[in-house]
Predict the 3D structure of the following.
Amino acid sequence: MLKIEHLGIAVKNLEQSNELFSKLFGKKPYKLEKVDSEAVSTSFFMIGDNKIELLEATNPESAIAKFIDKKGEGIHHIAFEVEDVVMEMKRLQNEGFTLLSAEPKKGADNKLICFLHPKETNGVLIELCQEIK
Ligand code: CMX
């Protein structure tokens, strides 16, 4: 793994949270993006080298809706940048981690992504992401 690519925060209302985090950071999100395959609307902020993603569910079956129902708003996942997501998926599967998809998926902000089940990572949802070049 190369570095933390972003932290994902689950929110109930993206518009209100964009205002809140814009005040907090002193800048607006650089991107708003809807990802239908993940049933989320997202926004991205850059703070120095660090990226924060806000996620709102677009339907009640969304992973974000379920997470908020169970745990409330808050940090939802940590994403790590990897050079080659398929290679990293194979390596981690061989190490005994459970991948949440058999193939990488197209995620927000121009990434190929794969999640690991939080049960095997001390309750933290981990995302692998590779920049699409
Ligand atoms: N962090 C830590 N634990 C989490 C979690 C999270 N983000 N989401 C769910 N869990 C826990 C639940 O609390 C539950 O724990 P208990 O069994 O102790 O109650 C367990 O995982 C299973 O949860 P569940 O509600 O029974 O199952 P779900 O249907 O919610 O599935 C998960 C959970 C992680 C498999 C599912 O959310 C998933 O596949 N996530 C990956 C995809 C995703 O999160 N997409 C949204 C973001 C997309 C993006 O970044 O663009």
About this structure: Helices lie at 14-25, 63-71, 85-94. The pocket of carboxymethyldethia coenzyme *A is lined by residues 8, 35, 38, 40, 42, 55, 63-64, 66-67, 70, 76-77, 100, 107-108, 115, 117-118, 123, 125 (CB under 6 Å).
